[in-house]
């Protein structure tokens, strides 16, 4: 058996092969949608999610339509984002499976005429330009992706509920529908027509509390955090305007992953939303929710099982023109429609796994053995059990995998078991420090910080006094300081929120002006006041130099950097006056809007926090060192400045850095569980091999069944 193509353009969603009505539609998507996504999650983020600052200069499509340029740019960003993600999830290549749907017969929505508006005689949403109204006759027989887009764009209620069985390909269908909606919008050349076609945006419902925020408020916040287009002054207001004017349509995934009571509250809150809506859910959860709360005016359509002919054609398309006898026999049996194999391959997940696990010349006909594989579940479990090995097998013409299949499977089993134990699908890397005991890391941080940060002070004490007592005192002080830093680092073992603070969040125009005012006030006051009480005052420029850190600390404490200087001597003086600021940022957003993938978010946190920690250390050194150097002697000032820099940098840049804590935990897990030392690198590699997928800064297994199977196999017999 050979591995799936590890090319970055390979991926899988909910299951695997994507859907399409024709190859032409796929090529049109490529030609018609362009732009920039700041996240490979994703600028999108599903779950607890994040991003990188990319500034676009937007010219409004119509001078009288101030939001037209914003909407057009959002369409380009979303198109590029999901074009990339669809490629990574293998929704476009090779020729995808067709999507087929029918109006659901489950009790998940009201009457069809309530959605089409035929009896009421009026529509909440008019048909999109170029599309006709969705009527009972037009939707009665179901159809494919093009018909689904016609329903989406012509439904009078603007409420479409997309349901299906687990692994039916609901998310894949939603993504392809979104891309078709973008293609349709791009085809509207006239700005007036384009303004009437909303920009589809896919979000996860994770993290929304309808009791706290309305649908518009929540969506505006998510758009602001996840798309740099809405950053800066007035960004959230623009997002809200687009939503209120119906110029954005929301594709909401993950309703089935929300707890029951919250699902009902979400559905109730969405009923009055002023925008078009596509809600994706597993059928069972949708039925349970509808017993308490139904989405008024919604049309429920259900994704149908894959037809045998479609599955056989899809598998044969990736094989040589003359397939091996084993593949010929398997596809022949599949077309005959008999046995557990035919039942198993009605699921896109199983089809994708079969394609990944078995190569052109592998004995795929072994799956026809009903003694070994008596049920469809047995076939699916067999494919799931070999998915990791296939992904990490050496493939001719491709680089050797960085990790062995044994290491990969051991690591993924450990992760799956941990997530299952926590009752979640989301692998939040900033929660990894809580996966193992913190004591070994605490001891290591204690020793390293005491030695590295304490050495300059001990050396200084010895040089100044050549006496044993100050040297011993300095050593004890270094040990105490190292213990304090270790305690701060150990606190990150408790799950923390992922702050979204970045350079432009901290150094805003307002905070920088506040810092400059504070600096000039204090520096000028000292320049004017000190000469009145001392004849041997330092020159005025020195006062402006040593008071610069006061301005720097003012910048931090008036913005999202207040916790950087908290508990830092001198710089934290007066921070208590900023309780309102801390209250405003007590619940930091869970999305870091400066990175492109979970690994990039991790790198961003390392770089930002370390740099700010060093800047804070430099500020404290600048605050103390020059005065000591001027009044006493230069060596003392320099050594004190270096000591302040090291201790402050360690306390504010390392000890409280979630990314550093995650990296240290990865080293500890390597020795305890045999996982890779570079765990974040491994997770990204597993994503490229289609075992994981990314939703913002969060990783997930490509499908719940894969997580469940790996977790079950990690348990002792």
Quick rundown:
With 717 residues, the chain is mostly helical. Among the domains are: 23-49 and 67-303, Rossmann fold (3-Layer(aba) Sandwich), CATH 3.40.50; 308-345 and 358-391, no CATH class.
Structural description of this entry:
By secondary structure, the protein is mainly alpha-helical. Among the domains are: 23-49 and 67-303, 3-Layer(aba) Sandwich (Rossmann fold); 308-345 and 358-391, no CATH class. It is globular and about 100 Å long. Helix 8 crosses helix 9 (235-244) and helix 26 (598-631) runs antiparallel to helix 27. The longest helix has 34 residues, at 598-631. It has 30 helices and nine strands. Strands 1-6-2-5-4-3 form a six-stranded mixed beta sheet. Strand 4, helix 10 and strand 5 (277-282) form a beta-alpha-beta unit. Helix content is 53%, strand content 6%. Residues 1-16, 18-64 and 576-596 have low confidence and may be disordered. The chain has helices at 23-32, 68-88, 112-116, 136-139, 145-154, 170-186, 191-195, 215-226, 235-244, 260-270, 283-290, 308-317, 325-336, 339-344, 348-357, 376-391, 405-422, 439-465, 468-490, 503-506, 509-533, 540-546, 548-557, 562-565, 579-584, 598-631, 634-654, 658-673, 679-688, 704-714; strands at residues 101-103, 159-164, 199-204, 248-253, 277-282, 299-303, 427-428, 692-695, 698-701.
């Amino acid at each position: 058996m050979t591995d799936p193509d590890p090319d970055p353009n390979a991926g899988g969603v909910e299951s695997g092969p994507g859907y399409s009505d024709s190859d032409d539609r796929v090529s049109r998507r490529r030609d018609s949608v362009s732009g920039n996504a700041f996240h490979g999650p994703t600028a999108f983020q599903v779950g607890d999610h994040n991003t990188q600052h990319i500034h676009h200069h937007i010219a409004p499509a119509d001078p009288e339509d101030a939001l037209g340029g914003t909407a057009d740019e959002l369409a380009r960003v979303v198109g590029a984002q999901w074009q990339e993600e669809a490629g990574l999830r293998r929704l476009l290549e090779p020729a995808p499976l067709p999507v087929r749907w029918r109006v659901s017969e489950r009790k998940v929505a009201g009457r069809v005429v309530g959605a089409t508006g035929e009896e009421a005689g009026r529509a909440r949403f008019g048909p999109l330009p170029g599309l006709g109204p969705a009527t009972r006759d037009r939707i009665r027989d179901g159809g494919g992706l093009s018909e689904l887009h016609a329903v989406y764009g012509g439904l009078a209620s603007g409420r479409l509920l997309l349901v299906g069985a687990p692994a039916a390909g609901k998310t894949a269908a939603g993504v392809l529908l979104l891309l078709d909606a973008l293609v349709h919008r791009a085809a509207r050349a006239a700005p007036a027509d384009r303004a009437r076609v909303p920009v589809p945006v896919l979000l996860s419902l994770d993290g929304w509390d309808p009791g706290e925020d309305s649908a518009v408020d929540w969506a505006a916040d998510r758009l602001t955090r996840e798309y740099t287009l809405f950053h800066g002054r007035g960004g959230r207001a623009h997002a809200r305007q687009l939503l209120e004017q119906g110029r954005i349509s929301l594709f909401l995934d993950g309703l089935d992953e929300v707890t029951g009571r919250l699902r009902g509250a979400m559905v109730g809150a969405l009923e009055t939303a002023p925008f078009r809506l596509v809600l994706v859910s597993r059928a069972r959860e949708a039925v349970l929710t509808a017993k308490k709360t139904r989405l008024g005016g919604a049309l429920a359509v259900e994704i149908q099982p894959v037809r045998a002919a479609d599955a056989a054609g899809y598998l044969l398309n990736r094989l040589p023109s003359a397939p091996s006898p084993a593949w010929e026999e398997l596809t022949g049996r599949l077309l005959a429609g008999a046995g557990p194999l035919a039942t198993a391959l009605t699921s896109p997940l199983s089809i994708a796994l079969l394609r990944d696990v078995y190569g052109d010349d592998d004995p795929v006909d072994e799956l026809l053995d009903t003694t070994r594989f008596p049920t469809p579940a047995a076939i699916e479990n067999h494919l799931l059990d070999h998915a990791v090995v296939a992904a990490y097998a050496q493939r001719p013409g491709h680089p050797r995998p960085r990790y062995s299949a044994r290491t990969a499977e051991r690591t993924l089993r450990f992760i799956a078991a941990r997530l299952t134990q926590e009752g979640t699908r989301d692998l939040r890397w900033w929660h990894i420090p809580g996966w193992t005991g913190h004591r070994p890391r605490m001891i290591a941080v204690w020793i390293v910080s005491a030695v590295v940060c304490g050495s300059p002070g001990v050396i200084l004490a010895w040089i100044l006094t050549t006496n044993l007592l100050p040297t011993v005192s300095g050593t004890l002080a270094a040990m105490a300081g190292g213990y304090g830093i270790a305690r701060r680092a150990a606190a990150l073992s408790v799950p923390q929120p992922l702050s979204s603070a970045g350079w432009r969040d901290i150094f805003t125009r307002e905070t920088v002006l506040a810092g400059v005012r504070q600096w000039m006030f204090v520096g000028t006051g000292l320049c004017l006041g000190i000469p009145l009480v001392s004849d041997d005052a330092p020159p005025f420029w020195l006062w402006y130099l040593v008071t610069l850190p006061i301005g720097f600390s003012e910048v931090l404490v008036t913005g999202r950097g207040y916790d950087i200087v908290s508990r830092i001597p001198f710089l934290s003086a007066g921070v208590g006056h900023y309780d309102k600021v801390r209250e405003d940022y007590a619940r930091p957003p869970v999305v870091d809007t400066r990175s492109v993938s979970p690994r990039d978010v991790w790198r961003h946190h390392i770089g930002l926090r370390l740099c700010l920690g060093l800047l804070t250390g430099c500020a404290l050194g600048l605050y103390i060192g020059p005065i000591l150097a001027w009044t006493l002697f230069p060596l003392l000032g320099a050594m004190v400045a270096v000591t302040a820099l090291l201790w402050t940098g360690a306390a504010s840049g390392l000890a409280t850095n979630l990314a550093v804590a995650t990296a240290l935990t990865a080293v500890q897990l390597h020795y305890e569980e045999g996982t890779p030392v570079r765990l974040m690198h491994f997770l990204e590699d597993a994503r490229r091999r289609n075992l994981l997928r990314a939703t913002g800064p969060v990783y997930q297994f490509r499908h719940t069944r894969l997580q469940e199977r790996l977790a079950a196999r990690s348990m002792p017999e």
